[in-house]
Amino acid sequence: MKNYQDDVRVGLLGFGTVGQGLVQGINLQIDNISSRLGAPLKIQRALVQDANKKRVVGLPELTTNARDILEDPDIDIVVEVMGGEQPAYDYIKQALGQRKQVVTANKLLLAQHGPELKALAQRNGKGLLYEASVLGGIPILRTIQHGLCGDKVEEVKGIFNGTTNFILTRMVELGEDYPTALRLAQEAGYAEADPTMDVSGLDAACKLVILCRECFDLEFHLKDVTMSGIEHLDQRQITLEKRQGRIPKLIACAKPQNGEIQVGVQWLPETDLLSRVSGVQNALSLKTLLAGELFWSGPGAGGLATGGAVLGDIMEAAERVLTERDTVFQQTGK
Prior knowledge:
alpha/beta, Rossmann fold, Dihydrodipicolinate Reductase, domain 2, six-stranded parallel sheet, six-stranded mixed sheet, 13 helices, globular
């Protein structure tokens, strides 16, 4: 058994853009992190597909075998940043079964299996934290869970996908056609080689489902979301609407009292706050019973921004690890 003064060790499942952004964020403020926690935070190793691949950020130890992380008793926190439903779903279940704290940024996985995984975490007395799964660098889940716990959210509306917002911004402001704007988003690293999840509205729908579960304390599923994307837009339609003072945005919105939960293009007047959100920025508007309308905006894509949100969850998980160790030490002296 570890002494309670030991460092807190993290295993990464995935070491792509977000994983490397996370490590960069830790390296930039390693002394501050140790000071706040009262113990060093160490990335023990990361799971990758190719350990020999050149990366912008390095780690002393990489592995191609998930068991090296999931079954390592020295690893306290498992961080899943690989994306996709499988094998991430199996890995997170295994990590929780091994009684490790788990952090994930996987919106598709949470939209499909979130309640099941949260219940498993509770049964094992561990945390499942997922701030980075929704709006990148905007810390909205903690705000809803804690800052708004005395209020009642009545409506959710926002721009939840930085890739499509980047594409639409270029189509509106620079007059580019959809294929050109998409290609530039891919070249900039904002869109995947297969951009379907972003441009179809699925990514935004996953985030909307996760947010609705937090805001309304109701069970929502992806099948409940009416969804459409941006693939059908063309410059002729954009030009006509701009003459009327309206611009397109991919909007996710939910009003459970009206049975409305949907993602699709809306033509917003230039006076609407959401119409002014450009590039890869995300934004969220909440209408609440007591506070009225609240608005947030910030980076919704990029390794450092999303990595920073993951790091916030890791810090919370690390505090839980240290509290558990302290309790054991007080009870046993070990």
